[in-house]
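Students often ask what a holo structure prediction actually looks like on paper. The answer is less mysterious than it sounds. You provide the chain, you provide the ligand, and the output is a string of discrete structure tokens encoding the 3D arrangement of the protein together with protoporphyrin IX containing FE.
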Amino acid sequence: MTKAKLVFDPFSADFFDGAYETYRRMRDEAPVYYNDEYDFYALTRHEDVAAAFKDFETYSSAHGVDLAMIRKGVPPEQRSIIFMDPPEHRHMRALVNKVFTPRAIGALRPMVTKVIDQFLAAVNPDRFDVVQDFSAPFPVEVITRMLGVPAEHRQQVRHWIDTTLHRAPGQLEVDEAGWEASVQTGTMYYNLIQERRAHPQDDMISKLIAAEVERDDGHKTQLGDIEIAGFATLLGGAGAETVTKLIGNAVVLFARNPDQWQKLLDDRGKIAAAVEEVLRYEAPSQYNVRYSLKDVHLHGFTIPAGSPVFLIGGSANRDPDAFTDADKFDIDRDRTEAQNVGFGYGIHSCLGAALARMESAIALEKLLDLMPRYELNWQDCRRVNMQNVAGWSNVPVRVLR
Ligand code: HEM
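The corresponding structure tokens follow.
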């Protein structure tokens, strides 16, 4: 029997449902995969993905980090750190690192705990939807509080992001509703920035207004409104959707692997390792796209300069050449074997990793208290259809007494 044609389609149900079988074939049969329908390349082996993440001189972020953006270019009002190459990236990262120091994040623990407690106190303790009732609303509340967004707009930010990232099968580009949502987000941040310029407060928007960044010509200047709004929009998206997915993925994975949940019940000291394993096993951010600045010769193939190249971290993290029993969900696995690329790698590696780890660990801790034994209503579990973000939109659980 001949094998089915190997197709990796990031806008298909195969991707939305978790394309691990496709990734396995890509690693084995096409380590430099080319998609002739959409005209892009993809790397899936751990060593290739990790090397490409580090090689910013070959793999540029400045043309965008998703396919639609690389084709059209980054709209000027959306230019933010994630779409920059050095030296601009280095300067901007140095600035925002000051706001995201481990100490600054550690100081947020009481606030994060309080937000998590508030949302969990409001759920029906016998049956609730882990994503809709909990992991969707809490991370956006945290990040928008940090930014200084007034309470009445915080949850709205999440609905705008959902609309912008949503993709129907076959849909590459942001649709009309998505554009409208991003304009509304930008306008809300623009108005907030004007308000904080007039009346600074103890929040991130006010700190960004006061900060100075070194420009490529060596001069230091303050950030403009568009730069601050772009960064705030990025944080709202990067800081909310991904943690939402990580918690939803965790609850599904632990339902499938109850022995692993039991390990956490027996030893809460394993929570941090569990967060890393969920991140490895089912990465909320499955891929990041780059634009090749030069010809790349790899495994006997050439990726021409000027090509979109998918770096599929979701596959790298399941590569058996990097991780023993890569397809086994095991919170006790040896973490020194290979780099977990769930937070990216190299210069763009996740700015919010410490915050994401803290939020996820507190959330798991509280879920262990609330639902030491639970079962999923599998029938009503739903996955999201989204650009690069993978996971569940609905994870209904019944708490067992
Ligand atoms: C489980 C949660 C998270 C996951 C899986 C995740 C994943 C990632 C990944 C894969 C990248 C690399 C993007 C690239 O190379 O193009 C990244 C970058 C980034 N993340 Fe996260 N992220 C998470 C949470 C957060 C949070 C909570 C924040 C902020 C509050 C955040 C802010 C950022 C920013 C600003 C960047 C761009 C950094 C740069 O370009 O230098 N992320 N994240």
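The chain has 18 helices and 14 strands.
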